Amino acid sequence: MSDHQRPWLDILVLICRWFVGLVFLYASLDKIQHPEAFAQAIANYRLVPMPLLHPFAVLLPVVEALCGLVLLVGWQRRGAALLCSLMTLVFIVAIGSALARGLDISCGCFHTEGGHGVGQDLLIRDIGLLIVALVPLFAPRDRWSLDHWLARRGH
Amino acid sequence: MSVVKQALVLLMIALVLAGILWLVHPEGLPLQADAEFYALDLSAPLVSVDDAHDYYESGSHYFVDTRAGAPEGRISIPGSFVIREHSLADDLAEVMDFLYPEDPVILYGNGGPLLVDAVAARLQERGFLDVLILQGGLQAWRDAGHPVDGQEDGHE
What we know:
The complex is a heterodimer.
Chain A: H1 7-33, H2 35-45, H3 50-73, H4 77-100, H5 120-138, H6 146-154
Chain B: H1 3-24, H2 35-38, E1 46-47, H3 49-58, E2 62-65, E3 81-82, H4 88-95, E4 105-108, H5 113-125, E5 131-134, H6 137-143
Parallel strand pairs in B: 1-5, 2-3, 2-4, 4-5
């Protein structure tokens, strides 16, 4: 079946790409504005070594915002989807680890203060997000993207 | 461009942007986190090196080495037990004839409070009531010139 006979694939990739892009962009905003509160949220997990805590607290939201933006426009789509998938995987491990250790902490996912406490529902949510992020990562094409438009102009 | 290359390009861009953000943010974080600031949320209270040394001299507290990795041959506070987070159950089983939950213990690590705090929380879950964390860890202990031992394995 040719590419043109599978328009649902383009729609699926577009929806998943936009969904993941919006989630990561939204998740980054409060963290970028309040790095000190986000650093505290990360420290509460007791996983990141102290020398890496502040660099991590500043870099992670920027990676989230950048990946969110480029996923929305469809530039470097697969690289951004890879980073989003890896970040989500790290979040799943961190939340699972906090649950296993019985830590009663805020997840720091979207809001740095007064956010959702870690729980199994967060694990399920992040596993769902990971599955959605895998679609733009492995999709063979993405017709309604900047990547596609640039490739066509190049030819 | 391969997927990994794309990801690396994005990471490099993010690194530059984060660097700029770091420089211009009015409430920019210092590069080095202050462990004591984040120690406010520790599971157990901190004990200063000087107080810990007094306890060491009086023999009132047991010292527990929480650093990951094999304990043989490395520098440690003399007489320390070894209880590491990654092998907590096995390590506790090894010392159970010598260390009881009612004993006061001082935990120490390399200086960062994260690993040692994880051990503190798990010991408290197992009924240890009097748990302290050595502020600054082994490095602060050594900097203060207090005794260390590189030979004893800590189980005797």
